[in-house]
Amino acid sequence: MNAIADFSTDDSLLRLEALADLSGRLLERARALGADQAEVSCSEDRGLNVNVRMGAVETVESTRDRGIGVTVYFGQRKGSASTADLREESLQATVEQACAIARYTEHDEAAGLADAGLMATDFPDLDAWHPWALDADHAVDLALACEAAGRESDPRIANSDGASVGSGESISVYANSHGFIGRDRSTQHSLGCALIAGQGEDMQRDGWYSSALARDDLEAPAAIGRQAAERTLARLAPRSLATGEYPVLFAAEVARSLVGHLLGAVSGGALYRRASFLLDHAGKRIFPEWFSIEEHPLLRGGLRSAAFDAEGVATREAPLVSDGVLQRYVLGSYSARKLGLRTTANAGGVHNLKVAANAGGFDELVRGLPRGLLVTELMGQGVNPVTGDYSRGAAGFWVENGAIAYPVDGITIAGNLKDVFSGIEAVGTDVDRRSHIACGSILVGRMTVAGGD
């Protein structure tokens, strides 16, 4: 089997310069066609992904993608067009199309580039570039070793959903007519396995994965396989629960979803459309007094580190929640103008978030729970962003006298997110580092649990 993608020669800086030069030429063309303002986003992605199942190769996929987006403003009328074709005639047509669209769109007072004075001027090395010279043969070997370690760890592992290895790199340039040009490059690598234990209607599935910017930070294939097996076996012979109100401990890998619901509610788009249960809540306490969340966009080696946002605005460390009080919303320049506010340098999303802990690790949290539900998996999308009503399928374990008693599934947990947020009693130190939301397990003092008994 030959190598599918060649990462051995790192030409990323040369390719970034080529994209920067291309961006400059596209901005000049937009200006020549009469645009008052313009911005260009160029990106190149390439990667290798391998999937195996039951000891055999299922897929080997090499990807190479390119995207070029042009947005122009005639006054405050906006037009956008995109292409993946670098031929001169295609690039010219893309700019012309964006200009033609802008001439027919409605005037929008909030439209336009972010303010020139907010553009980033400092571009530190954030340690996000760690290419991996991975070929298909090696990727297959890693995936097979991962799956084999899981399948061979216990005879009750009867089947497999397979193992996968992925490695990718992305380079991008954002430029605008303020004279701003920002370059970015990052890598992402992953290795995971999903296994099936039991037979027939008693089968249970679970898995584990590792992801990181650098290959050396991935967990070992055998360790991932064994962890997947342990999690799968632990779910055998599940029970349901009697419907009632119980403490609920969200394991770290699902706890960050609660932060995700917060982000959706305080994002500019939801707020100016008045489609959020946290309208007009900036400056109000919505969490316990000890609770805090901070954004760290300039964290070296962070999964979502960036010196500038998707509009070129300089990022900065800033609290999102302090002493339980919502300090700000999450805004780009457009949503900020719609709300009469200032951008928070979050065009394109948040960067690295850290939820402060007030408790010990996972084992300590479980020991401190006389009885309650440990949630390790969430299913469905039963969250109403307008009212905050929350209802999701769940699986996990029942905790009795500070110890895990037995697995449970076929249950639903419900409440209102305002009550969930204010009812948080503990955040653990057991941070799941596979996400840009650094959050440990979260204990909510009381939620409704609907079971089958």
How does this model look, in words?
With 453 residues, this protein is α+β, with helices and mostly antiparallel strands. The chain folds into two domains: 12-232, 2-Layer Sandwich (PmbA/TldD fold), CATH 3.30.2290; 238-453, no CATH class. 24% of the residues lie in helices and 35% in strands. The strands form three sheets. A six-stranded antiparallel β-sheet has the order 3-2-1-4-5-6. A five-stranded mixed barrel has the order 7-12-13-14-17. A five-stranded mixed β-sheet has the order 10-9-8-11-16, with no helix packed on it. A hairpin with a 2-residue loop joins β1 (37-53) and β2 (56-74). Mean pLDDT is 95; it is low at 1-7.
Q: Could you outline the blueprint of secondary structure elements for this entry?
A:
Elements lengths: L11 H21 L4 E17 L2 E19 L2 E7 L4 H17 L31 H16 L5 E20 L4 E17 L6 E9 L8 H14 L9 E7 L1 H15 L1 H5 L20 E3 L22 E5 L2 E2 L6 H7 L13 E3 L6 H6 L3 E9 L9 E12 L2 E14 H6 L1 E4 L9 E2 L3 E9 L3
Helix pairs in contact: 3-4
